[in-house]
Amino acid sequence: MPDLHDGSTECDPFPETALPTDELAAVLADRLAEVPEWRSAKDPVRLGFAMSEPHPLALHAAGMFAARNPNNVGVHTRFGDGVRGTRRLEREAVLALGGLMRADSADGYLTSGANEGTLAGLRVGRNALRAAGCRRVLVIASALTHHSVAKAAEILDLGFKALPAKPSWVLEPAALEEAFDALEADGEDTGVIVVSTAGYYNTGLTDPVDRISALLGRRTDAPSRLRFFHHVDAAHGGMILPFTAPDIPFDFRNRFVHSMVLDPHKSGLMPYSCGVFLCRKGLLGHGAISAPMSGFVDETVTGSRSGATAAALWSLVFGLAAEGYRETFRGCLDLRGRLGDVILAADPDAVLLPSPGNTVLVVGFSTEGGHLPGALREHYRLVGNALPWTDAQGRVTDRLFHHFYVMPHMTVSHVDGFGADLAAALAAPVGPEGRPAPVTEAERATTEPPVPAELKHLRGTSACLRHLVVHPPQRRDPDDYPHAYSFHTFRNRAELGEQLRVETWPPSTDTEAQGGGELLVYAPDFDAPFANELFGVLSPRKFSLEVLDRNQQKLSLVGAAHLSVFEDADERPHTPVLLANFHGDGGFRSAEYKWGDRWHADELQVFEDSLVVKVGKDARSIRRTGDDYSFSIDTSLELRVTLTDGDAPPRLERVAQHTDPALPRRRHLLRGQYQRFPNRFFDVIVSLTVGRGFTGTVGTDDLLAEALQGGPLLARSADLGLARVLPRFAEGRLVTGLEEVRGEGSYEMSVDLGLGARLRRELEGIDVTEPENLEPRDVVAWAERLHPVARRLQLAAVDRDGVRHPHWPTGASGGKASAVRGSTA
Ligand SMILES: *Cc1c(COP(=O)(O)O)cnc(C)c1O
């Protein structure tokens, strides 16, 4: 699990020898046990998701055909196609589904799901509209549309316009008409792909497809610069509504519905992956590409497809048929009625909105903000969405609703069990993880406790990646919860209301560290200063020293204690921030020099046995809601130099190119991807080995030319932008030159090969392996003695004439004299 150790995910070597059969079986059995069952009492009940147990008929047919591995590549609904085997089964299933969707004549094929089916529909629509002379094509849908629509528009390079959701929660013809008028006024020949939905994921509702179709017909018949294509996303409703509410007109009975997607793996009792794309006969030609090497014309998005899936779908269409589906979904609707009853019994003031014909129930609970306790949401996999709502005063506001899917595998005992759990949860007093009040950004800004004024000068963010914390509720219990941790910074802590307590340290000595200024100590808890995350010593504007508690020491990536010298670094960018990191036993671990701003820096890390050059290290942290926050690091180039004893010349071990640094990278993750820490990314990793005593000269070309095949080693430097990286060895130093590719800028990071060993000898810490036994004054004394040495190290590395050279400064007093071995007296 490399990602849990250092946050980077690298590939594993492909196994050379086969696992013995019993081991293989054991691993698979273990993984199978991790997949929830549908009906077991101990597993979560997925009330918030549209998924269900596949039907045995489908599983049987899929298994029966799988061994022959038939390939259903292409489309099989045209004359002369699909006459044999699984292609025939696909043709018959698709055409029967076309009939179910009230099409007289249709083409279609099995897709991997609704994402692909919508992509196929929009592709056909775009190409047809272009063929009709539209130079501009765009997609219009409701803001509540499934994200697969925006994704397809993005893939096809089409503009996407989301019409704001109204309290009706459906696409209103009047809003469409307004949007069309605005486009018409532009005076350009425009193709518009309207996407309607039959069964919105979070409401279960269906758009008025008949009225939308009529509108498109009217506009097409009138003189207009607009041309239309209408795709219906029936992923959720398509396999349900025809059996429960056949009068809801969402399908091809409307003249202006051109294509449609169904999702049998969502609501049609099929195993994954199975969607169905349908369109009016003839339109598929707008997506045709000839495949000369296979001798056919390809009109699909995918290439090879599973024939076994077609057999499975066929066996449901013909083996269950309408009577089977009708019985299944009527049962779901009955059970949905019961679910509504148990919810009202627990929360009589809840607002219940069953969607017509669909198996979805949308509920606005009467709890504060409509929230439900976290444990209940977790066990029943419930998802809340804020939706526009007209309140009792007639105002439109956002209100939190939860949606419930009553799917075919569900039983009365699932529903009654939920009712009992809901009643118990709502009756219980509101605990710490009870119903959290919704906090808006604006409220947060006014209610957040400010960072203590004394700590203002402490790095508010993660210039020092101080330590990891475990997410609540097990935050202080990493052994039980090793996978949910993140970096924790002071500003985060203050934002969470976990303000650090700060006290002024009585000015005992007039040390250089204090410099006449005040010294502060801080901790979350002064009653147990070393047993509760951390204890810090701060000289505002100059430095901080932190000692982590036992748990944080276990999780920390940078040692058990660390001194951070930030003096001058904010004002003068060529002064590095310096971090000195220590192991629990007091031994020196590493010194990190960072030039740049607190987020984006070029760095040198000095260990006793290695040197690490980081070019363009970019750190981001994000707080989502409440106490959920995390961190990612994106480093353009990391040069790792392992130091061995002796004077062996440098040897290149590995160059790993993960991405092209010349391409702009998306800045870190999207907000929604931050929840899992750690995340570390590298464009390029270069590993070298060299003897610490090596004093010869080896240039960049000799080191790297072969591995790079003569090309440059590029990285995005924090200071220079895209730069050539030129590592070399000279006179007992590792020198890394950086030269801006499109400009004049350049500088060097240079470091003595022996610096780490020297720091190890000279910079001593105090033993913090048993932090509970420490006294604040021990740590303050350590900080006072450590700071002057570290400050001289920092100043020695200030950029002079474009050279940044960490070294042991002449005149730095011996570390032994200035450090103390820990006393726990
Ligand atoms: C589930 C769903 C999709 C996406 O379906 P996949 O099978 O995951 O591709 C698209 N639209 C709606 C309305 C859905 O409910």
TrEMBL record:
InterPro entries: GrpII_AminoAcid_Decarb, PyrdxlP-dep_de-COase, PyrdxlP-dep_Trfase, PyrdxlP-dep_Trfase_major. Keywords: Lyase, Pyridoxal phosphate. Pfam families: Pyridoxal_deC. It comes from the Bacteria. Its cofactor is pyridoxal 5'-phosphate. SUPFAM superfamilies: PLP-dependent transferases (SSF53383). Residues 803-825 are annotated as: Disordered. This is Uncharacterized protein. It comes from Streptomyces lasiicapitis.
